[in-house]
Write a structure and sequence with these properties.
Elements: E1 14-20, H1 23-36, E2 41-44, H2 47-59, E3 66-68, H3 74-77, E4 81-84, H4 91-97, E5 104-110, H5 114-118, H6 121-130, H7 142-158, H8 168-175
């Protein structure tokens, strides 16, 4: 075909945003997802999270490797579920993973994490507790996806020069003032 102008693009993988109230509930949710998708590719953005995940999986007898999300490529994810254990604070980094040829991309988050704390997650956590939501309940809605994307875009406007970090907490300390 002439420059592939008329060829069909491969469809983007299904994208799910799964949000829990606490980090502990998120890790339990990840273990359940791995049971549902035993060949899933597991990735995280920060070295501290990768270390934690390797330990968590080992303690639970799971042999899946944990990949650095910055270095993952489509040959690893082909036709598999891609489980991303955390959000990267800036959206542009995450957009590359949404272009993978995975069967689906699932990003796991908790209201206790720095991205949510920076944008008032503690207030939402209090509200969820007041209405009787259980810690292990998953919040999964298109409004959550949109709110997270908006938060990441707001951060991108504040961060002119990005400093790398070993954890999400350290990233916020190094990159976001006030």
């Amino acid at each position: 075909m002439l420059f592939n102008l008329f060829s069909k693009k491969s469809p983007a993988p299904a994208f799910r945003e799964m949000l829990w109230m606490t980090t502990a509930a998120k890790w339990n949710g990840l273990l359940e997802l791995i049971q549902q998708h035993p060949d899933a590719v597991i990735a995280a953005w920060f070295p501290d999270t990768i270390i934690h995940l390797k330990d968590l999986l080992q303690r639970n007898g799971i042999n899946n490797p944990v990949h650095d999300a910055r270095r993952i490529h489509s040959t690893i994810t082909e036709s598999k579920a891609l489980l991303i254990a955390e959000h990267y604070p800036l959206r542009t980094r995450e957009e590359n993973l949404l272009q993978m040829n995975a069967s689906e991309v699932i990003v796991l988050s908790a209201l206790e994490e720095p991205l949510f704390q920076y944008f008032g997650g503690s207030h939402l956590l209090e509200l969820m507790q007041k209405i009787g939501a259980k810690e292990d309940e998953i919040i999964e809605h298109d409004m959550v996806k949109k709110a997270i994307a908006n938060a990441q875009e707001k951060l991108a406007k504040k961060v002119l020069v990005e400093n790398t970090a070993h954890s999400a907490e350290a990233w916020f300390q190094k990159n976001v003032q006030g």
